[in-house]
Amino acid sequence: MGEAGDQMDAETIGELLEDEYARSILAAISVESLSAEELAEECDASPPTVYRRLNRLQEHDLIDEEQIPSPDGHHYRRFSARLEQVTIELQDGSYAVSIERTETDAVDRFTKLYEGLR
Amino acid sequence: MTGIEITVEGGSTAVGLFAFGLAFATIVVGVWIALVAYRGYRRSGERSVLFLAVGIALASTVRTSASIVFSTAGASSVVTNAVAVSSQFAGLVLILYAIYGRPERHGGRAVAAAVLGGLLTLIVPFVVIDTFGPNESLVEAGLNGLPAIVGAFVTIQAYRGYRRYGQRPMLLLAVGLGLLTVGSFGTITGLYVLTTVSDAGALVVIGSVELGGLLAILRSLTRE
Fold it and tell me: Which residue spans traverse the membrane (chain B) (predicted)?
């Protein structure tokens, strides 16, 4: 959706990607969607570390999550990366950051929203 | 019966009592849906979920309860129908906005659009009757077509959500919204064509379809 109105400043995106765990989490879930437990194993980090990074990435809309119902009734979440491209433009003394994200379609949004309502 | 009196012409007392039971159940289930939806919003706290919750409440609870409350209060069937249809229409607009728009940023516009759309659907039947003469049932049937078209679209999106993720709540939501919009429109139109059905009979048939829709939505919201 990388249109204007989606602006993030250069400092924020810098801080986000400076973190090694955040980078490896994003890289892992850009290949396939994973649960937090799988990510902890994949990135060799503790689950709280993974959750903290996931929350931060989610705040900036850089990842997507889907609820997977399991037979025992406990839902679990899988994450996938939405970040595709970051462009930082320096013009007339200021930085403009624009982010391209993977499109999610209406059906995805509807299902996810409704899951949030239930 | 004390307090509430439903007057219908034609049809036996049994049918009348059944219609009363239906109306009562419709209000109970409708209010229940609104409460569950509100609780869902409180839990998530997200604005887009709020739009979805209000949309579902308007499209289901307010539509069905308004028909009952207004007709019981003695409003004409044109007024009753116009209020029901316009609130449902506004609800569907809010649901669409929750899905397609960005309620986090521009919520005000969607509310304005929903109110405007609702008001227009509210006024249209009176203008039509004023212009083309008082063929009320025809106007009612026609007016229901508007939310039916939008409702069919939302229903298909919910069904696609079910197909893609295999989530049964989305299937139930599709069934519920479908019955409340397309189902209700189809029934009203069908009954208009079949002029042999008595008023009370028609009330029961439409009431059953709508209660079925409400039950499907309630189940979809509360199912684990």
Answer: 15-37, 49-72, 78-99, 111-129, 141-159, 171-194, 200-218
